[in-house]
Task: structure prediction
Amino acid sequence: MIFEGLLNLSAWAYIGITLVLTHITIASVTIFLHRHQAHRALTLHPVVSHFFRFWLWLTTGMVTQEWVAVHRKHHAKCETPEDPHSPQTRGLATVLFGGVGLYRREAENPETMNAYGRGTPDDWIEQRVYARFRYLGLGLMLALDAFLFGWVGLIIFAVQMLWIPFWAAGVINGVGHYLGYRNFETQDASRNIFPIGLLIGGEELHNNHHAYRQSARLSNKVWEFDVGWLYIRILERAGLARVQRAAPKTVFLPSKSSVDLETLQAVIRNRFHVLRLYTTRVIRPVLRRERIGADAYARKQLRRLRKLMSRAGTSLDAAQRQMLDSALQASKTLRTVHEFKRQLKSLLQPSATDAARLARLQAWCAQAEATGIEALREFAEQLRGYSMRTA
Result:
């Protein structure tokens, strides 16, 4: 006789319950482990914080310090051999299907724990229960599933056990650094997997996160949706959370006619947005003008150049580099806008005092306006009024 649980439900009800249970786990990972613990982008009420810890103990057996330390090291060593789970160095299949193993191996490294695991919960229950008996919670979850749902509960439990290893450790860390679209020209290979961040709690917007890693909001464009941010706002309205940091919203002040320290600070803090604007407002218009009057082959090459000039300096293979160099040699205009982008990226790096960088930014704007390239001149004028506000 097949063992029946306390509840006898329809197949669709079992599917719905499974999706709800796994979604709570995803929400716990993205809100508690990722945005709250790893990046301190928000604070949580102790009751909410402990609920997430307890739920993760029941459904994943993860120790907060270990998860946080491995993730912080990923940001610090991104796409290098020291990155715990980069598909660029380890291969996509290895990370996609073996992400949990990579996590476990790195979590056993005491140097990683000491260097990157500070500030995580270290109270009595963490030491004596959650960390000491990490698999006890899984056993309780298995017993509860079986008691409530009978033999179907065993299937629900199996799905719960596979959900985070595949979607979080595999898809986010693997696909999120391999396939998708990019809003920001970060120095790593991060990608936004999909603009609707629902299935993985908003973590689908991975390139946005790498551009603004301390932001509690992962969505950036108006057509992107981050369900984790929706939950955070609900908690905040209820007085159970407080957002500490969010990616700044940019504004242009037409009344400003000179680059000042406020402009510099806005440009530096929002440097990935500035570089994206340079691509859309300078590189693309210049390439469109270059295509006018060109033959079919040249137009095709110029379309390919848009991506290469956006990625210039990162992840270009030998053939792509040769193609870019040839195009720059053949066009003075393209060579000029490429060089000004290189200079802009250089002055945004933290390698000088604010006074020195301010002088360089002022000189950059003046020289850009004097090039005679309309798109570049307009961009430099707009940059003078660049400001930001938080949201």
